Structures are given as structure tokens and as C-alpha cells.
TrEMBL record:
Chain segments annotated as transmembrane: 39-57, 131-151, 163-182, 188-208, 220-237, 286-305, 372-391, 403-424, 430-449, 458-476
A GO BP annotation: endoplasmic reticulum unfolded protein response
TPR repeat start and end residues: 499-532, 533-566, 601-634, 703-736
Membrane topology: Multi-pass membrane protein
Record's keyword annotation contains Endoplasmic reticulum: yes
GO molecular function: dolichyl-phosphate-mannose-protein mannosyltransferase activity
Stated name of the protein: dolichyl-phosphate-mannose--protein mannosyltransferase
Keywords, ordered alphabetically: Endoplasmic reticulum, Membrane, Repeat, TPR repeat, Transferase, Transmembrane, Transmembrane helix
Length: 758
């Protein structure tokens, strides 16, 4: 609704405009709810939204945070800023065939700023920004819902009037406390959805500002329309869903600004009625604004397509099994079932899971599957709402229902599998924006019930109860997102058929050293998904460490058979074959791993160990040198080079390699120790002593450090110091090889010296 300016000098004109607006149907008339001034309403929403997720502020990096943040080189200062515009969300080149193609450079930029300000990977700063973003978005929702539910109307001073203060507050509270938002707020990678939502809403509010000086739809600001398009582009650079705001702005323009009756328009088009202009389609400015929005959107999508470089990302069947089904019927029916699950998560967000893939939701393959009921219920509700949105004689009802459905459906389209395959089955993060539409429909339904109810306060108390339950659910779910152990275990009851859930629980246990429990979960993951090569690889690794080499080899062989380019499994298979003394097969496995992953320093390191065992010293040194070229901080490869050169009598070369290594890794005590041994043999006692002492300072409980320093002092003639460090070494490790014999020799020598002195 756009008001005209009349009698600008009249007193209390703003109140007059408000009274005029109130003569139109207004949801606030029908509900029993809190009426707060705009400032206080926003303060309440901000506080409640903060309360929901505050306990996630000191959580760890969990799940996808490792790949998107900790392992993402784009966050580090040494990576040029320009690289962010050529890499995907995970730090891979967009031109790579293995790229995820998720282009979100502005989100990655905020991660980088977080990292630089914190001086490292400290999760608190990342979590705090996410919480602040959600609070800000929830506050903006008060203004957005006041427009969507109450209409757009300005005073003569250009100030927007809030014609639905009670319902806009209720809808904003519903949005702020919805538990399905927990993944976006408590999971740091959810920053993409939060930033996208922020600029999505700013684009909508900017578009509304274009009509501040409007008179009956004839005047508007081209500047603010263009600002809205730019903000939509920024939203898309945070996450792909952001582009959908341009379509929603067009829908809003047609329904609210131009009061378009969609059903009437369709009828006139079908009958080729010449009075289309009266229907609002050709009203001055509408086509021009929609052309601006469409041109902007098409330009943004074209640039995005050019930057992406290649085709869409290559997902696997376990990521989205329905999209790989041969039958169109199976694909369609399962896609619709996924939609119904998303709708259920909005209605009843109790069963939440960090991952819904890998068998969590078995495919529907026939109409006899009882889950067909969910599809029927979804479409029964949607068709009913669409009919009301199109056919109702109440223009106010048509507008609210259409906007509600628009905000529910349009932002969800990129995740719907309709235009391209997506890499998930259900993802709670993608319904952050569609939940706006849900909140509109819920609030409108509440107003209709209130209108019919005799005891409105009882209904209001029920809604308050829902809000309170959601707040508690948010707090509980946020606490589960604080650590991987809690997050992964919480999924076991929701998705017991999900192999990835069992895999992640097992991986978490293995990282904590609980191998026996990890084996149980890895076995269950492989049972649920017999082609789960990552679970086979990790299980094979644990069995290898437990010296159960036969089963380890079987698992790793099966993994590379299923996925022949799985480089890590090839390397681990080589390690097992080496342990089984099948050296030729091990060498072949290592080279196969390197063929599939050219830059694989760990594989070169293990290949070097194989060559060292075979006394192929030159090959071993070359392999370790390759490892250090690919990964200059590869301490084990440097150490092995120094030790091999030392053992073969090449002291000068060993010393040169040791000094080179310490320049690159100056604080590595194991390198100090190895170089100190070489210097001691070269009779550079003073320098050797300094390195031994520095290594001991860094790692005082290493018995070998004290033992070898004692040997140095023994050779050097500092017998008292030698005795002291022999004793420390034996105290730390009474069974240290050679130390006891050397200590006894020293004691006899000291006794002889005492007798001579006596």
C-alpha cells in the first residue's frame, strides 16, 4: 500500500496516515499479543535470539569447519587476496574437476579476517561473529515482516509506517528461535547462509525504499532498485541462494506495489483481453523495474557461470542417491519426499542431524511405501494454500499467502534438484531463508485462529509455549554443536542408518586414541554402506597399527578396487604390504598413489622408508627430498635423511641437510637432536652441546636426548655432566638401549680416576 501526500501542513499528519491505513484489514486487530514500540521490539528479538545460541560461543571447530577453515589455505596471509576470487568455498581452484563449485568469496574473506584478527585458528571469534549475524538478521526481520504482513506505507516525511507491530514481532520471534537455524549459527561454515540472509534482507529493504516518494505507483527511485540488485549480487557472493531475492522483489512489486491480481491476470491472458493495462501488468514502471531486476540477475548468473569455468560439480551417489536413480518416477517421488521432510523440519524441528546422506533416508521405490502419505500431505497443503492465494476474494489474504509461499518456495529452488543436482539429501542450513515464508504463514494462521477463538489469551499462551520450547531446543542443539563428539553422537538416534554418522563417531574416537571403540563404529559404517571406501581406509589403518595385517590388506585392497584413484588407500596398502615384506607390491602401490595424487609428500616419505629397508640409499634420499620439496615442514623426511647420511658416514652432507632443515623448521627438537648427533661425531662439541640442550629444553622427558648428550660429554671429557645426564636418561627410561652400559663404563672410569687421585 502506497500513500499519497495531502495537506503537508496539517498537524499530526503521520497519525492520520496511520489511521487511514488501519481502515484496511489488519492482522493485529485479531490477535492477543504484545504491543511494543519498534525499538523495544527489536531489543527483545535481539536478546531472545542471543539467548538461543549464546552457549555455542566457545565451541570447537566441528565437521565441515575443518575443511572450510582449518585446511583452507585461502585464510592464511601468505595466500594472495586475489586467489579468493578464483577458488571455491573449500580453497580449491574453481577450474579443477574436483572443485565443489560453491563460489562464496565474501564468506571466505570474513573467515580470513577472523583468522588474522585472532592470530590463528581460535574458534571463539568465529562463533561470536555468527551469533552477532543471526541477532542482526533477526532484528531486521521485524522490519521485513512489518512490510510483508502489514503492507508498505510511508508518512509524508518518507518514514515507513509499521502497520502490523504485533504480528511482525511474533513472526520475528518465531524466526529468531527456530531450532532449524542452529546449524547455520553454531556451525561456523553456516556463516555463508547468515551473510547471504543479511544481504538478502538488505536487498529487499532497499527495494522497498525505491517507493518512498511514490504516488500511486508512478514514481520510484531507480537508484534504490539498482542498489537492491547490487545487494542481491553480494548475497550471491556469500552463498548461491542470494540471487533468489531478485525474483522475490519482483513478486513483491507486482503484489504489493501494483496490487496485481494473479488469477485475474491469468484469465485475461488466456482470453487475450485487451484491458491488460488495467490488470496492473503494464502499469507505468512495473515492466521497467522487472526488466532491471531480470537484467541484473541474468548478468550476475552469466558472470558466475564464466567464473565457474567448467560444468557442475561431480557428486557421488551416496551424497544424493535419488538423483542417480534410473527411473524418472523414483527421482520425482523421492525429490518430493525430501521436500516434505524439509517442511516437517520447519513444522517440528525436533529430529535434527548434521548429515542426512548415506542411507539416512532410504529411497522410495514403489507407491506401496507408506511414506507416500507425506508427499500427499505436503501437496494437499500446498495446493490448498495456492488456491486460497489465487482465488480468495480477500485481496489482503491473497497478498499475504502469496508472499508467504513465495518466501517459502523461491529461496529453496536452488536446493530442490529441479535445475541441477545438489550434493545432499536434506540440509538444515538451506531452509534458513525459506523459514521466512514459514513464519509468515504461521503468523497468518495464528491470526485466523485468533479471529475465530473466543479465548484469545489461551491461544497466545500456546504460542508463547511454542516459542519457549523452541528456545530450549535451540540451547540444547547449540550445546551439541560445541564438540564433534556430542554432534556425531546426537545423530545416532536420528539417523541410525547413516553410514557417515557411524564413520564420524569412529573417527572422533580414533583421534582420541580409543581404537577398540572406533573399530566397532567403522565396521558398522562399512556394513551399512559396503562401498564406503573412507571407512575401509580408516579401519584398515587401525588394524595395521594393531598388527592385524591380513584383514587390513583385504579392506584396503577392496577400497582401491571400488575407487581406483583413492590415493590414500593405495599408500596405506603399500605400508601394509611393506610390513608383510612384499616389497615389490608395496613399491607398486606407492607409485600408484603418487600417480593419482602428484603432490603427495607422505607417500614419498613412506616410499623412502621402503627403499631404506632395501638398502637402496640413493632412491631413499631422493624420495625423502621429494617429500621435503612438496612439504618443506615435513620433519620426518628431513630427520630420516640426516640419520641415513649419518649412518652411512656422510657426516658433511648430513650436517648440511640438518642445517637446511632447521632453517625451515627452527623449533623442531627432533631435528636439533639429529643434527647434534652429527656435530658430536664431527667433534664440534660446543655447537652439538648447544643443540642438545635446546632440544632437551623443548622436550625434557626424552630419555634418548639426555643419553646422547651424556655420550657427547663422555667423549668430550666432561665426566660429571656425562654422569648427570646418564642418570636422568636411566630415570626416564631404565631400559634405554646402551645407556646402562655406557653409564657403567663411566662409573668404572670415575672410580679409577678417584683411586689415582687418592
Amino acid at each position: 500500500q502506497i500513500c499519497n501526500q495531502h495537506n503537508a501542513e496539517a498537524p499530526n499528519l503521520e497519525q492520520a496516515f496511520y489511521r487511514m491505513a488501519q481502515t484496511e484489514p489488519n492482522l493485529d486487530h485479531d490477535i492477543s499479543w504484545f504491543l511494543l514500540p519498534s525499538y523495544w521490539a527489536k531489543m527483545v528479538v535481539a536478546f531472545i535470539s542471543f539467548l538461543c545460541f549464546a552457549n555455542s560461543y566457545d565451541g570447537d571447530f566441528v565437521f565441515d569447519d575443518s575443511e572450510a577453515i582449518i585446511n583452507n589455505k585461502d585464510l592464511r596471509a601468505e595466500t594472495p587476496l586475489g586467489d579468493l576470487w578464483h577458488h571455491d568455498f573449500w580453497g580449491s581452484k574453481l577450474s579443477s574437476n574436483t572443485s565443489h563449485k560453491s563460489y562464496r568469496p565474501l564468506t571466505v574473506l570474513t573467515f580470513r579476517i577472523n583468522y588474522l584478527f585472532a592470530g590463528g585458528f581460535y574458534p571463539v571469534g568465529f562463533h561470536v561473529i555468527n551469533i552477532i549475524l543471526h541477532c542482526t538478521i533477526s532484528v531486521l526481520m521485524v522490519d521485513v515482516f512489518s512490510i510483508l504482513l502489514g503492507g508498505l506505507q510511508f508518512s509524508n516525511k518518507g518514514r515507513r509506517l509499521n502497520l502490523a507491530p504485533k504480528t511482525s514481532l511474533l513472526a520475528a520471534l518465531l524466526f529468531a528461535v527456530h531450532p532449524v537455524h542452529t546449524e547455520c549459527v553454531a556451525g561456523i561454515v553456516g556463516r555463508a547462509d547468515l551473510l547471504c540472509a543479511l544481504f538478502f534482507l538488505l536487498s529487499f529493504l532497499g527495494y522497498c525504499k525505491a517507493f518512498r516518494e511514490n504516488k500511486e505507483g508512478h514514481n520510484f527511485s531507480v537508484f534504490w532498485v539498482l542498489v537492491s540488485v547490487i545487494l542481491g549480487a553480494i548475497a550471491m557472493l556469500c552463498k548461491e541462494q542470494g540471487i533468489t531475492i531478485l525474483g522475490l522483489n519482483a513478486v513483491f512489486d507486482a503484489l504489493v506495489i501494483n496490487k496485481l491480481n494473479v488469477l485475474e491476470l491469468i484469465q485475461k491472458l488466456l482470453h487475450k483481453d485487451k484491458s491488460l493495462e488495467n490488470a496492473g501488468l503494464l502499469r507505468k514502471g512495473l515492466l521497467f523495474r522487472i526488466t532491471l531486476l531480470m537484467s541484473g540477475g541474468a548478468s550476475i548468473l552469466y558472470i558466475r557461470w564464466r567464473i565457474m569455468g567448467t560444468g557442475p560439480p561431480a557428486f557421488t551417489e551416496v551424497d544424493n542417491p535419488a538423483s542417480f536413480a534410473d527411473s524418472l518416477f523414483v527421482r520425482a517421488i523421492n525429490y518430493n519426499y525430501y521436500y516434505s521432510l524439509n517442511a516437517w523440519l520447519l513444522l517440528c524441528p525436533w529430529w535434527l542431524c548434521f548429515d542426512w546422506s548415506m542411507g539416512c533416508i532410504p529411497l522410495i521405490k514403489s507407491v506401496s511405501d507408506w511414506r507416500i502419505i507425506a508427499l500427499a500431505a505436503l501437496w494437499f497443503c500446498l495446493i490448498g494454500l495456492i488456491c486460497q492465494a489465487l482465488c480468495s476474494e480477500d485481496s489482503h489474504k491473497r497478498r499475504i499467502l502469496t508472499l508467504g509461499l513465495g518466501f517459502l518456495i523461491i529461496p529453496f529452488l536452488p536446493a530442490s534438484n529441479l535445475f541441477f543436482r545438489v550434493g545432499f539429501v536434506v540440509a538444515e542450513r538451506v531452509i534458513y531463508l525459506p523459514s521466512i515464508g514459514y513464519c509468515i504463514l504461521f503468523t497468518y494462521g495464528f491470526s485466523l485462529l485468533s479471529k475465530q477463538a473466543k479465548k484469545k489469551k489461551i491461544l497466545a499462551v500456546a504460542v508463547l509455549g511454542i516459542l519457549l520450547i523452541n528456545v530450549m531446543r535451540c540451547a540444547l542443539r547449540s550445546s551439541q554443536w560445541r564438540s564433534e563428539e556430542q554432534l556425531f553422537r546426537s545423530a545416532l538416534s536420528v539417523c541410525p542408518l547413516n553410514a557417515k554418522v557411524h564413520y564420524n563417531v569412529g573417527k572422533n574416537l580414533a583421534d582420541k586414541g580409543n581404537q577398540s571403540a572406533a573399530i566397532k563404529y567403522y565396521r558398522e559404517a562399512v556394513r551399512l554402506n559396503p562401498k564406503y571406501v573412507h571407512a575401509m581406509n580408516n579401519l584398515g589403518n587401525i588394524l595395521k597399527e594393531r598388527n592385524e595385517l591380513q584383514e587390513a590388506e583385504e579392506l584396503l585392497s577392496l577400497a582401491v578396487q571400488i575407487q581406483p584413484d583413492f590415493a590414500a588407500a593405495w599408500m596405506n596398502l603399500g605400508i601394509v604390504q611393506n610390513s608383510l615384506r612384499r616389497f615389490e607390491e608395496a613399491e607398486q602401490s606407492y607409485w600408484t598413489a603418487i600417480k593419482h595424487r602428484k603432490k603427495y609428500p607422505d607417500c614419498y616419505y613412506n616410499l623412502g622408508r621402503l627403499y631404506a629397508d632395501l638398502n637402496r640409499h640413493i632412491d631413499a634420499l631422493n624420495a625423502w627430498r621429494n617429500a621435503t620439496v612438496l612439504k618443506p615442514e615435513h620433519s620426518l623426511a628431513w630427520n630420516n635423511m640426516i640419520i641415513l647420511l649419518d649412518n652411512t658416514g656422510n657426516l658433511a652432507q648430513a650436517e648440511a641437510v640438518g642445517r637446511e632443515a632447521l632453517e625451515l623448521i627452527p623449533n623442531d627438537h627432533s631435528l636439533m637432536f639429529s643434527l647434534a648427533n652429527v656435530l658430536g661425531k664431527s667433534q664440534k662439541y660446543k655447537e652439538s652441546e648447544a643443540l642438545f640442550l635446546k632440544a632437551i629444553k623443548a622436550n625434557p622427558n626424552a630419555a634418548s636426548y639426555h643419553g646422547n648428550l651424556a655420550v657427547l660429554y663422555h667423549r668430550w671429557g666432561n665426566l660429571d655432566l656425562a654422569k648427570k645426564h646418564y642418570e636422568v636418561s636411566l630415570k626416564l627410561d631404565p631400559m634405554a638401549p646402551g645407556t646402562k652400559e655406557n653409564y657403567n663404563l663411566l662409573r668404572r672410569k670415575l672410580e679409577q680416576l678417584q683411586k689415582k687421585g687418592g
